[in-house]
Amino acid sequence: MATRPDAPPGAAASPIRDRRKAFKLTQAELGDAVGASRQTIVAIEKGDYSPSVYLALRIARELGATVEELFPLDDDSPNS
Q1: 35, 25 in Cβ contact below 8 A?
Q2: Is 19 in contact with 63 (CB distance < 8 Å)?
Q3: Distance (Å, whole) CA 68 – CA 80
Q4: What is the per-residue pLDDT for 78?
């Protein structure tokens, strides 16, 4: 994954942000479409907030992706 120019070294770009931008949606538009606030979308993209399963599914559906594509498990996870 590519890193954001403003991200700390080693930080990965957000798959949600990348997909949202490819769909030419603002954070507010995505939030409206999935029943979440713009601030929630910001926090999810930054990795500061993990959405509920239902919200993750709505985001994935809106962006034409799977939950696994948008919310990959960390490589260091013991279950991966």
Answers
A1: no
A2: yes
A3: 12
A4: 52
Residue with tokens 């994954």: 1
Instruction: Report the alpha-carbon distance of residue 60 to residue 16 in Å, rounded.
Output: 8
pLDDT in tens, 25-80: 999 999 999 999 999 999 999 999 999 999 999 999 999 999 999 998 876 555 54
What are the helix (H) ranges across the chain?
15-22, 27-34, 38-46, 53-62, 67-70
Tell me the C-alpha distance between 59 and 30, whole Å. 8
d(CA 57, CA 65): 9
In the block, residue with structure tokens 């960390």:
74
Q: Which two tokens stand for residue 32?
A: 């409206």
Q: What is the pTM of this model?
A: 0.78
